[in-house]
Specification:
490 residues; alpha/beta; Rossmann fold; 2 domains; five-stranded parallel β-sheet; four-stranded antiparallel β-sheet; 15 strands
Length: 490
């Protein structure tokens, strides 16, 4: 496996120092409803985790909630509730939306408000080592004491000085210095500290939580590309200054930002589209949204497109229909493969070809994903797998059930579940999977008769059978280049 590292700006062989792989992802600041930019970030990192596990690497995945922040305080004021209640409300919204998108919960979630004593201890360590100083109850990190500052972002000193204007303060010894502890303003939440009643700065929180939960050096640190500077740059500075160990993170994995068609970044500070609103109209199943978010390489910026989202929904339905069709055929094959035949397993040309295509699809999928999680060709490999399974399935219309057919169907369905499951894309099993074998046999018999009628260009008979399938079994038939597929009506 090779993985891009923002710090070195190249793909590198992935060789974790120890197992499990230690993975930390900068999580949500719960100040409003989660938006599609959040969806992309957390779906991508969930995909990274799942693929590492697929390739045999156990992972310890830690993600934080920044549950106290200027913007959370503002959200509380906006909604007339305490900041803590605002944070709790939108933390629940995160879990609601991530569950729908099949994002697995982290092995450990950390919350800033539960880490205050350890954050204070971290800051005290930096002061003791000469990397931080106190001014009027505030504490600042001294950037000049860390000569490697700018290593991650590639910024020179002038660029860092320009970035420092984000948090101007005349009391700083150097304009690049950043806050580790902030004394509380009137009406703000606060905690006791050796320096003042106040709360932590943003950057120190993640260093403390990551190191406490995963150790002084971690394998993968994930987050959005907008966090490279200053947040992750500052994490490196304060973490390595305290421990003296380099690197703090062996791999920095940054997800490209989600933008609106206007070019504006999707963000709570500007315009945003919530996850809930995308899923509310019923046109986009949640797995299709997940598929859309994985359709482009994770490092590339992504422009939200309703057209591409709709195309992803079509793609997902094609996969889901293929899976449902395999499930129906498996039920048919199991019902028609007698116990006496089960000792025979000779495969025909169709079964050999299908098995070869399954192997090719799996290899193409792994080759793509092994090269920095290149999901676009990996999805194309699944498309090919679906195409070949549909071709095989359409060829079974007049074929007798046999152990070889049964084995081929099981192999195809297992492969589809394997590859889509590795990406976390769920495939719904059609309700027809619960039909009894006798009903399935009757449906398949009618479909075979209809296929013969169409082959003989007897379209009146074909239409009659289609109507009989609908009125008798509530079956909707769809003709495709690979043959007819069917589903149950609502």
């Amino acid at each position: 496996m090779r993985m891009y590292n923002t710090e070195t700006r190249r793909n590198e062989d992935f060789e974790p120092k120890d197992l499990p792989v230690k993975m930390y992802v900068c999580g949500l600041t719960p100040k409003n409803e989660p938006h599609i930019g959040h969806a992309r970030l957390f779906v991508v990192n969930d995909m990274v985790r799942r693929y590492l596990e697929y390739r045999g690497y156990p992972v310890k995945y830690v993600q934080n909630f920044t549950d106290i922040d200027d913007k959370i305080i503002a959200a509380g004021h906006r909604e007339g509730i305490p900041a803590s209640q605002a944070a709790e409300r939108y933390t629940k919204a995160y879990f609601r939306d991530m569950d729908r998108l099949n994002v697995r919960p982290a092995d450990e979630f950390t919350y800033v408000t539960r880490y205050i004593p350890k954050i204070i201890e971290f800051i005290e360590g930096l002061i003791a080592k000469g990397h931080a100083y106190v001014v009027d109850g505030d504490v600042f990190f001294s950037v000049p004491t860390f000569p490697a500052y700018g290593r991650l972002s590639g910024r020179d000193e002038d660029a860092n000085l320009a970035g420092a204007r984000i948090e101007p303060d005349d009391r700083k010894r150097d304009p690049r210095d950043f806050a580790l502890w902030k004394s509380a303003k009137p009406g703000e939440p606060w905690w006791e500290s050796p320096w003042s009643k106040g709360r932590p700065g943003w950057h120190i929180e993640c260093s403390t939580m990551a190191m406490d939960s995963l150790g002084e050096q971690i394998d993968i640190h994930g987050g959005g590309a907008d966090l490279i500077f200053p947040h992750h740059e500052n994490e490196i500075a304060q973490s390595e200054s305290l421990t003296g160990k380099h690197p703090f993170a062996r791999r920095w994995v940054h997800t490209g930002l989600m933008n609106l068609p206007s070019g504006e970044k999707v963000a709570h500070s500007g315009r945003f589209i919530t996850i809930a609103s995308v899923l509310a109209d019923g046109e986009t199943p949640a797995p299709a949204l997940r598929l859309y978010l994985l359709g482009q390489h994770y490092r590339a910026p992504m422009i939200f497109s309703e057209e591409q989202l709709a195309a992803s929904a079509v793609r997902w339905r094609r996969w889901a229909e293929a899976d449902a069709n395999l499930a129906r055929l498996l039920t048919w094959a199991e019902a028609h493969t007698s116990a006496a035949k089960k000792g025979a397993s000779a495969r025909g040309d169709a079964e050999h070809t299908l098995s070869e295509r399954i192997t090719e699809a799996r290899q193409a999928f792994i080759e793509a994903m092994d090269e920095d999680f290149n999901t676009s060709p990996a999805l194309a490999a699944i498309d090919e797998l679906v195409r070949h399974t549909n071709t095989y399935a359409s060829g079974l219309r007049d074929a007798p059930a046999s152990p070889a057919v049964l084995a081929a169907l099981r192999e195809a369905r297992a492969a589809l579940a394997e590859l889509t499951g590795t990406l976390g894309v769920q495939l719904e099993v059609a309700e027809s999977g619960a039909l009894d074998a006798e009903t399935l046999v009757a449906i398949e018999a009618l479909l075979a008769q209809r296929a013969t009628a169409r082959k003989n260009r007897d379209f009146a008979e074909s239409d009659r059978i289609r109507n009989e399938l609908l009125t008798t079994y509530n079956v909707i038939v769809k003709d495709t280049p690979q043959g007819a597929t069917w589903s149950l009506g609502e």
